[in-house]
Amino acid sequence: MELLRCKVIGAGVAGLVCARELRRRGLGVEVFEASDAVGGRVRTDAVALPGQKNPGRPFLLDRGFQILIEAYPEVRRQLNLKRLGLRGFAPGAVLAFGDGDFRIVADPTRSHPKYIFKTLSAGIASLRDLCTLVFLRLKQVFLEKPYAALERSSVTGAKRLSTEEFLLDSLHLSSNLVERFLRPFFEAIYVSPLREQSSACFEFVLRMLADGGTSLPSKGMQAIPEQLAEGQVVHLESPVAEIRRDGLRLASGEWKDFDAVVVAVDWPAAEKLVPEVSAARATSSSTWYFALPSPPPVSDPIIILNSTLREGGEGEEFARIVNVGFPSVVQNTYAPEGWDLAAATIRGRSDVEEGWVRQELAALFGESLEKWKLLRVYNLGFHQPQQTRRLWPPRDPLIAEKGVYVCGDHCAEPTLDSAMRSGRRAAEAIVQAMP
């Protein structure tokens, strides 16, 4: 059998998984990446403290505050987690009510005993709330498969609820729990309002959080795509300008023949190459990174949520800090000795000024931030595809002309698991179509 010539456009997580799956099946694969490194949206920059003559160990800044959910089925299938040197967050979150009022809400079945009393005394959830969530978790873990919620959403005639409708109208959880904890928690994950999030995706991620931990690699999130890229032929700084039936043309003018090509880039870039790719709205965010002398205001390895009640409105025209993390508390490799790293994620408008960000953070922590030094701001116009009510089954990877495939998290739910799974499905579709 003649060896198929496969080209993959995009060295993000989806493209790298696709290329590796094809290579495992003995096919010839080349990956073309427009930027200077692999990873796509999963990138990490090493940044020195401004003004230091001998900076020593740099700060590690992920491009947008990110965490790894270890229980994702495809993550466990594709990655050697031990090699990433993972260190985990405590399960749960710190709720910031403003003026330094912090309350911890954690999973008592998976947390350190010291968090149990703090959770019970937080005054966030009623006894009925706790019973409802425990029952939901037990049903998910013992009676359902990992993708059960997503599969249910594909049933013809099934009512597709937003996460907001599911929490308030189906589970009948208290508004206090939703507004103070669940809304900021999941709006921090997806950087979009609860009313625009799919309840199927909510149930899936809730199940994953119950099954395993959340963590950071010792070398930053980019260690994930770098592991996937090992042993692969990846051409960096090689943008593709055009796809035709029998080949593709690089921006340099070079022509590459193929038997199959996989478009594994974000939707805006994919649509330019293959107009048949359906439009996908995106969520946007900005992440502000600050260096601060140790210790940080919150020394627990846990995410801080903005649990102040919302004022002023919703939508892209409003800006709101949704969460603050101290990655260096989880992984000390993220900051030089004697320093810590703070990451504040903002949903909505990206044109906010540093003074506003500092004012909002000072209101949350109840203290001056004059010693915090701004390192870098990442404005992510395409943070992730916006959730639609129909996420399952994932889109067929074969599109347009014969031999042209597509993969990425815009093909199903916007998760790292979805990106990896989409890459694998594209590879399987190519193999299945082989003569």
UniProtKB/TrEMBL annotation:
Segments traversing the membrane: none
MF terms in GO: oxidoreductase activity
Domain Amine oxidase residue range list: 13-430
Gene3D superfamilies: FAD/NAD(P)-binding domain
UniProt-listed InterPro entries: Amino_oxidase, FAD/NAD-bd_sf
Pfam families, A to Z: Amino_oxidase
Name by which UniProt lists this protein: p49 protein
Originating organism: Symbiodinium natans
Gene this chain is encoded by: p49
